[in-house]
Amino acid sequence: MTIDTTLDSDTAAGSVGDVETSLAWISLRDAAIDLQALQAQDGSVPDPAHHAEAAGLIGTIVRGIRELAPLFPHDAAYLEASVIDFERWANGGFGVPDFLDSLVAFQPQQNRVDGMRHLVVFPMYTQNGSSNRFVEAVIVEAIWPEFIAELEASDYTNRLFVSLRLIDFTPGYDTNSAVLFPETVAVREIPTFTWGAIFQDREAARYRRVVRAAAEITRLDLPEAAARLLDDQALAERTFVMWDLIHDRTHMRGDLPFDPFMIKQRMPYFLYSLEELRCDLTAFRECVAIEKRLTEAGSNDAETLDHARLVQYAVIFDRIFRFAITGSRVRNYDGLGGQLLFAWLHQRGVLHWTDTSLSFDWDGVPAAVVALGDAIDELYWRSIDRPKTAHWLAAYELIRGVLEPHPGSTWAAGLPRDILIGAPKGFTDAVMDDEFPLSMFYEALDRKMAPVIASTTGIRGDA
């Protein structure tokens, strides 16, 4: 298969700061979009009648990468490998793509410099976006403020964590996806993963839109610091970087019943709820500790202190307003985590829904949030000595002690003996898709908030 990769002098990219408006990028992006129409779900181009057209599109993609590569010298090895992977795919007849070599060469965690950009082109699916392994192309920019670099270099080491801002992208990212993970890329074998990236600009933008609307609907009087997050996208981005830095490293830390989340295994979805919530509550707890330590020491590190306070508001409001009612009610583990946090705070008397207004006793909130984190930590610690299914049953009891299960739940009624003595699959199959339905509060809030949440699909940081 012959593909034309001749460079065109008219596609000069200019500076890296305006690469997203360059003809080279626009041609590359549009060719990737056109190629998606020819690809099957596994990324292949199965119809031989489309191979000539696909070869022409890959030629445009390769020319674009070569034209833009000088603007990304820190990614030279990756971009060179990407060209080779694209050409090999085309010359091999457009079977299931294999971009292992270029994936291994891409190491963004080695260049965590605020404002540094990357050109990223892979056949991949996008989490919370598309399940198709289409060729996607994005231009991204690192968010790495100095105070984050200092945190990561000291008490919160996380060498795999990459924080990014979306600059431009193909349709797989015109979705709810806010992550760039190497495990989504089409490869012949699974490599050792050395990085994971989160788009904090998208997280911050949808947080600001959703929380602003929810505060108005619930007549919540936001604290001054929390209100600042809604008015300042850059401030919100940095806050989410701090939150995600601590959250991400927590998955592999603590008294864990053998790495319960990261190993790919089938288990009741509420286990994933507890793991994600555990990591968020750890971020909250660490930020409480950072605030206390800096305040007591009379530190002049105002930026870290300010963001430590802001993370606490962000965790609470994102969890209870956005997570709880985003997505379907089919095994929605993030939604369940948001419901659990709301109910826990309400039942401990620090969150109030009175006279159709929402309010918090902020002095008591930190201790209540930390107590929920402690309860999950205790569950994990005890489950080191439990069989797996006994851990599942104990986790269910923790949740049902706060949230009301579905009236028809087999788990709530007590699993029959044939399931209890059988394989773990039976336990998982008995879990309802919506094991813990929305409360009346959330049913009403969902009706009012649904259009706002839908409007955040594909949101950009400048929205």
Description:
The protein is α+β, with helices and mostly antiparallel strands and 463 residues long. The protein has two domains: 186 residues, no CATH class; 249 residues, no CATH class. It is built from 17 helices and seven strands. A five-stranded mixed β-sheet has the order 1-2-3-5-4. A two-stranded antiparallel ribbon has the order 6-7. The chain is globular.
Brief synopsis:
The chain is α+β, with helices and mostly antiparallel strands. 50% of the residues lie in helices and 9% in strands. It has 17 helices and 7 strands.
List the helices and strands and how they pair.
Layout: H1 23-36, H2 51-68, H3 76-91, H4 100-105, E1 117-124, E2 134-142, H5 146-153, E3 161-169, E4 179-180, E5 196-199, H6 200-218, H7 224-231, H8 233-250, H9 269-296, H10 302-322, H11 333-347, E6 351-354, E7 357-360, H12 365-383, H13 388-400, H14 410-413, H15 417-420, H16 424-429, H17 440-454
